[in-house]
């Protein structure tokens, strides 16, 4: 029996029909070269025989003294969780994304362990896909991605590899549940340790400086000035998932031309896509949209945080920047430069702060957003409009039982008053975008994939001109 943390309980409390609180991932594989045509069917038979289930996949919810706890499920039915399905013909990416859109809309049964693994055949071109979803109270998105990566290998000849539900358990590390989440940041702030309380003076000083700067400069990232937009309405339970890969080399070429980072460029691509999408809906706010962007804090650790063997100390490794997307700027190159400056201002703000101070500063600045998302009673108090999250992935080709991983796409959470989540990850020489949104609030969301490409082309052409 394991009690749920206050933050994990919050994910259960937030869940309702129109607001499922699970995260997921979509992976596309190519058959091994020597595989028969019925390879996926044989793989499904092999998976059915792998009946050992390790933590946390063997846990279900229960209650002790009116408090939710995780308990071992003695009657776990693996057939309920592991599903072998075929895409409808003609088995294009369109059908695959439609499948994920529908499945990600469905709540999971709280009487069972809160996860599902879908093995999908019929994709064509000797490919198959895996779609996995896990409740956020059981595992956050970063943890889920890391666990999935543990399922893979760099060796194409390796066989008899276990599925994700039968991996040996590892201790949960703090950075897996750090400030990349709005709710975990606030939960972290509530910690009563002396180390946390000791950050209060520095955090309060920096927060006051931010507010004063925002009063003098309306363009400065603050906690008060995100406009209300189409993205920030109540939503339905129906989801639309859109995913696509973009060449990392192209993005790095733009970085070199403008003197920016990869994260700056992908953020600018998102800003361009949002600008075009909202303009086509006749719904672009006059004021620029604001994004919540998690950033790594590794470089901000004090030298004492680095161990003698060269590895870095455990601890909270992620903070959040509220980035101005400058969607009121029509020129793509100018927009990128302004985004770079906006992101740099956020990083400079953190440069003289410890990781604990950064996470607590993040929690304070996001507290209004939490209050608004939880209650909806302050519709004019819009802290940010959209989440843009970039999670590092494998740098080399990966395989599972000889099948080559071709692409991996994160599937995150849309919420009331936060109808769109733009999450991306890196894999080899690609940047993989996964967009999840409310199907009714954001019609034709898949067109945003074209707008992302258009945004990158604009930056490339601006570099040539």
Automatic annotation (TrEMBL):
Assigned keywords, A-Z: Acyltransferase, Glycerol metabolism, Lipid biosynthesis, Lipid metabolism, Transferase
EC number: 2.3.1.20
Biological process terms in GO annotation: biological process involved in interaction with host; glycerol metabolic process; response to hypoxia; response to nitric oxide; triglyceride biosynthetic process
Enzyme category, top tier: transferase
GO cellular component, one term: plasma membrane
Domain of life (superkingdom): Bacteria
Family: Belongs to the long-chain O-acyltransferase family.
Protein name as annotated: diacylglycerol O-acyltransferase
Organism expressing this protein natively: Marinobacter antarcticus
